[in-house]
Design goal:
By secondary structure, this protein is of the alpha+beta class. It folds into 4 domains: 110 residues, 2-Layer Sandwich (Beta-Lactamase), CATH 3.30.450.20; 131 residues, PAS domain (Beta-Lactamase, 2-Layer Sandwich); 155 residues, Reverse transcriptase/Diguanylate cyclase domain (Alpha-Beta Plaits, 2-Layer Sandwich); 250 residues, EAL domain (TIM Barrel, Alpha-Beta Barrel), CATH 3.20.20. 44% of the residues lie in helices and 25% in strands. The strands form 5 sheets. It has an 8-stranded mixed beta barrel, surrounded by 4 helices. Strands 2-1-5-4-3 form a 5-stranded antiparallel β-sheet. A hairpin with a 2-residue loop joins β14 and β15.
Length: 683
């Protein structure tokens, strides 16, 4: 499942009886309570910035706070009171909490506000109508008390029975401190002392007060002592108590939403970081703290095949299994979980990972199906990899990023080398899109020789990236980045266009037929528009389709065998030839020859290079060439570096070869010079 969505959080917040505003640059959402209170519709809210609702003097300050909270994270949580301007121009006093939250991998601001305009206005009324206090008290929904300098109750309004359950005169003459929570008494005593030293001022204090049933109620109290209170024959300070218990419950619900995941019941990342900080403090350089970040492999497919509700159930089951480890577990977001363990020695880290693998060894049941799940994991260790919670989590994430490249079930511990590789990938990704404009991509060509005549019969097109920071890069360095970013299709068209145009030029210049072999990645090969793209460039350059060879690896072909059959059949119907690249490096080599029709098999250089000194490599090369001859498939040896290699391959009956013995990959101009010299020497 993905992280908490905007839609789901809106459904939760719509029920809260308080002002709730979610905002980024502009307001994204305001609940019904906020709309009714201010007179604005949700549509009108969304056209405004939050700071437009405060007076002109405060706008820049509020605007800066919002940017600090959302963009830089400097202000994670702020609370206070502000004047909120309604559509009619009235000022509403809101007691608010502003909090930074993460939804769908983005940070937003969340404003929770309670209208305290009544309290503010009541305070003004108390100042202006102190002599009419007794009459007003009869109708007050709050508890109004008069407390003397020693804390004894001199008067309570009739509302005390409705709010706290006491009869009106039941507590007269008793100390207010006898009803206040022990942890709050000192704070109230200081407030009483302060008000009697400063008549004419107003203070607000919060405390817990015991009601008649013995339950603690959260009271927000405005304390006021008029100037000349003795002359007015007022026996003490006026306490205006308001029961804020429900508001506190709402605040706790919001905190629960912030700190705990509603789906799995696991703590969220904010709690995880606090717990990690505590663990770091607890070790005091004795022992270690293991941070393990976990991502479920191929979870998006589960949601796609079985539905999101089944995916949610699966996440709950995963959470329940993880709890069996008896370590601190957190759900960071989506299908990402984190484990936190105090360990005495590094060997315990391996034990935790072993237990984790066992948890996933048992299949999960999804709508009657048994499904085996795997995961990727990245790990960091305190104090080896860092001294702060944020640093340790960041480095575990870095290791996880690299683990995903290594395949399902991979668990990788952080190292500086891993971080360097991940950083390089991110740099490559960020500079990938401008590389075309800067003409950093080049197509190199390596000649392919017919062994019997030693004449050049074709070329393999090889993409290179002249990166300003990393120099000349081979595809192995950047193809995965291009695939993940979707840029692979633009690169593929660039290679097709350049390679076909170049070989067309060579055919005209040397009056010979040459073929061009072009590699295609898995995403390119399975793309529905592949054949249309190829046909387009064949047409543009008037290129014979039989002079184009499409190279795919056996791993690519066996990802989706049935779909591969259909694609290969359509390609061959157009006269385009097919070659298997890196033959022999995957488990499915022989199965491939049964399943698919191909024209060429390229024997991987990891077998060709050592074949003269390694009998096993020689056996594989000999067997592959024999298979090709029996099946009438052209065999092509890669990695030919010496004359001895060439002689041996010729004796074995290999048809074609390429490698540094003939020529390294080169740009078109160098290739033309190479061809002129080759033809002059060999005819």
């Amino acid at each position: 499942m993905k992280s908490l969505t905007k839609k789901s959080i809106f459904q939760i917040l719509e029920e809260i009886p308080a002002v709730v505003v979610l905002y980024g640059d502009k307001i994204i959402y305001a609940n019904l309570f906020a709309c009714k209170l201010t007179g604005y519709s949700l549509k009108e809210f969304r056209k405004k910035h939050l700071w437009e609702f405060v007076n002109q003097k405060k706008r820049e300050e509020i605007k800066q706070r919002i940017w600090d909270r959302i963009k830089s994270g400097i202000l994670d949580r702020v609370e206070g009171v502000l004047k909120f301007i309604t559509k009619e121009g009235r000022h509403i006093h809101l007691k608010y909490i502003a909090k930074r939250i993460k939804i769908e991998d983005e940070y937003f601001g969340l404003l929770l506000g309670v209208d305290i305009s009544k309290e503010v206005n009541q305070e003004k009324r108390l100042r202006n109508f102190i002599k009419k206090l007794e009459k007003l008290l009869e109708y007050s929904s709050d508890v109004i008390m008069v407390i003397d300098e020693n804390g004894f109750i001199k008067y309570e309004s009739p509302s005390v029975e409705r709010v706290l359950g006491y009869r009106q005169k039941e507590r007269i003459g008793k100390s207010i401190f006898g009803y206040i929570h022990p942890n709050d008494i000192e704070r109230v005593k200081k407030a009483v002392k302060k008000i009697f030293k400063n008549p004419g001022t107003t203070f607000t204090v919060e405390y817990r007060e015991r009601d008649k049933t013995g339950k603690w109620r959260f009271m927000e109290t405005v304390i006021y002592l008029p100037d000349g209170w003795k002359e007015l024959e007022i026996e003490g300070a006026i306490f205006n108590e308001r029961d804020n218990t429900k508001k506190k419950q709402i605040e706790r619900s919001i905190l629960e939403l912030t700190y705990h995941d509603q789906l799995t019941g696991l703590p969220r990342q904010s709690w995880f970081l606090k717990q990690l900080k505590y663990y770091i403090f607890q070790t005091k350089e004795q022992g270690y703290v293991l941070v393990l970040v976990l991502n479920i492999a191929d979870f998006e497919r589960i949601n796609f095949v079985y539905g999101i509700s089944t995916g949610d159930s699966l996440l709950r089951e995963i959470a329940n299994r993880l709890k069996r480890l008896n370590v601190s577990i957190s759900r960071l977001f989506g299908d990402n979980f984190a484990l936190l363990v105090l360990i005495k020695d590094l060997g315990q880290a391996d034990e935790i990972i072993l237990h984790l693998r066992k948890l996933f060894s048992k299949p999960f049941r999804l709508k009657g199906d048994e499904v085996k799940l795997s995961f990727y994991a990245g790990a960091s260790i305190y104090p080896i990899d860092g001294k702060s919670a944020e640093e340790l989590l960041r480095k575990a994430d870095i290791a996880l990023f690299k683990a995903k490249e290594l395949g399902e079930g991979s668990v990788l511990f952080y190292s500086s080398r891993v971080e360097k590789e991940v950083l390089e990938k991110k740099i490559l990704k960020s500079s990938l899109f401008n590389a075309f404009e800067k003409k950093q991509f080049k197509v190199y060509y390596q000649p392919i020789i017919e062994i019997e005549t030693e004449k050049v019969v074709g070329f393999e097109a090889l993409l290179r990236w002249m990166h300003p920071d990393f120099g000349l890069l081979c595809p192995e360095k950047f193809i995965s980045v291009a695939e993940n970013s979707g840029f692979i299709f633009s690169l593929g068209e660039f290679v097709l266009d350049s390679a076909i145009a170049s070989v067309k030029r060579l055919q005209k210049e040397f009056q010979r037929r040459f073929y061009i072999a072009i590699n295609f990645s898995l995403k390119q090969f399975l793309d529905e528009s592949l054949l249309d793209v190829i046909n387009n460039y064949l047409h543009i350059h008037s290129f014979n389709s039989s002079d184009l060879i499409l190279e795919i690896t056996e791993r690519t072909a066996m990802q989706e065998p049935e779909k591969t059959k259909q694609i290969l059949r359509k390609i061959r119907e157009k006269g385009i030839r097919i070659a298997i690249d890196d033959f022999g490096t995957a488990y499915s080599s022989l199965e491939y020859l049964i399943e698919f029709e191909v024209d060429k098999i390229k024997i991987d250089k990891k077998f060709v290079l050592p074949m003269l000194s390694n009998s096993k490599a020689m056996t594989i090369v000999k067997m592959t060439i024999g298979l090709c001859r029996a099946l009438d498939i052209v065999s092509v040896a890669e990695g030919v570096e010496t004359q001895e290699h060439l002689i041996k391959l010729k004796n074995l009956g290999c048809r074609e070869a390429q490698g540094y013995y003939f020529s390294p990959p080169m740009e078109l101009n160098s290739l033309i010079e190479f061809m002129k010299e080759r033809i002059q020497n060999n005819g």
